[in-house]
Structure to design on (228 residues):
């Protein structure tokens, strides 16, 4: 399942692909449940997960190495159909900026792969602090994953109007469309109350994380003595 940044995945040529990045510190069953839901809901041919090497907005003294986080992500999806793992951000020097990653994916895979960027709602509302954030919405469609909270579209409409572009209009209840930029879709995904912070805290406290992460990830964390 794992691939290097420079390797073209011929099996996803001319397909719809979701891009899902993050620190994955560690990846857990909540991540997996949500992306499996999104993959089925939008009929993606594949979703590519890519751990960030040096997240610019998440300074964390308890951040596992990028290689260890990559290994855990590969382990987590190895038995899931239609998921890929990329080390694209580990191959670049410096902070891992999303706009650079999108550009690199599009260069590697070419115009026959249609990418969508998958963002949690917290990440979406944080995009004003990202490098060249507004360029992201001109590069590819965005799917915002809202976990369980059905707050309506008003908060999204206000945010998009202020921080993305005033040209977006709500269509079909949960899709914002623009005449020049790509659509922004709001997807209500299942609420799975698991977080990486919770898992790290449980490990620090000597509590079990069984059922919160895939078995192979739990084993890797124990062997590498992570998050103590």
């Amino acid at each position: 399942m794992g691939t290097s940044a420079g390797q073209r995945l011929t099996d996803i040529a001319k397909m719809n692909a979701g891009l899902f990045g993050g620190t994955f510190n560690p990846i857990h069953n909540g991540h997996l449940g949500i992306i499996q839901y999104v993959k089925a809901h939008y009929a993606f041919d594949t979703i590519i997960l890519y751990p960030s090497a040096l997240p610019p907005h998440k300074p964390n003294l308890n951040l596992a190495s990028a290689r260890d986080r990559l290994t855990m992500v590969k382990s987590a999806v190895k038995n899931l159909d239609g998921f890929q793992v990329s080390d694209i951000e580990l191959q670049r020097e410096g902070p891992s900026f999303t706009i650079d990653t999108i550009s690199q994916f599009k260069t590697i895979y070419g115009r026959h792969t249609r990418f969508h960027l998958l963002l949690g709602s917290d990440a979406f509302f944080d995009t004003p602090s990202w490098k060249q954030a507004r360029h992201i919405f001109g590069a590819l469609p965005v799917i915002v994953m809202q976990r369980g909270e059905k707050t309506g579209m008003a908060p999204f409409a206000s945010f998009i109007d202020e921080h993305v572009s005033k040209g977006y209009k709500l269509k079909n209840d949960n899709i914002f469309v623009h005449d020049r930029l790509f659509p922004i879709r709001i997807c209500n995904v299942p609420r799975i109350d698991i977080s990486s912070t919770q898992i790290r805290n449980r490990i620090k406290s000597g509590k079990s994380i069984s059922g919160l992460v895939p078995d192979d990830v739990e084993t890797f964390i124990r062997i590498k003595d992570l998050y103590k």
Q: What stands out?
A: Helices lie at 29-41, 66-77, 98-109, 121-125, 133-136, 154-164, 196-204, 215-224. The longest helix spans residues 29-41. Residues 1-13 have pLDDT under 50 and may be disordered.
